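Second attempt. The first submission of DNA-binding MarR family transcriptional regulator had a stray character pasted in from the spreadsheet, which I only caught after the job came back as garbage. Lesson logged: always re-copy from the clean sequence file. Corrected sequence (178 aa) follows.
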Amino acid sequence: MVRPRPLPVDPLAEAKRQWLAHGWTDAADGMTVVTSVMRAQQLLLARVDAALKPFALSFARYEMLRLLAFSRSGRLPLSSVVARLQVHATTVTSTAERLVRDGLIVREPHPHDGRAALLALTEAGRDLVDRATVALNDDVFADPGISKADAAELVAIVARMRKAAGDFSDPRPQPDAL
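This time the job returned cleanly.
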């Protein structure tokens, strides 16, 4: 991946300076937080996309495959996938349809609920997600671009933000196995 030349000035620091100059002092720190996190997300997503490109996977498709691979049987009800990925059911259904089309998952009838469906990982899907995980681990996750101490602090800060927004409640010490 070609890295762009660094800008001579941090545009987010300049934006904060402008916020302050325009008298928006109460919102300046918040604007800087929001735009900083959004810019960091863009940078990380570019790295993730580059790592997943050889596998013809988007991060959404990867997440669904990885979730199914983590489950005990390689299959989960569609409703569980929606809840765990924290995205709208329409998005999960659309992603699942593409994965079915590509032979990476199959839809199965739910054994106890005739109205529900299970999503099940195929061997091709398991092989692909395992290879993609190695690439993500090597190219992105092993070195996210900050120290281990900063990473732990950042995760803790963002977790507090997510919790305050109602994203989750206090977890049990160990999540239940799928």
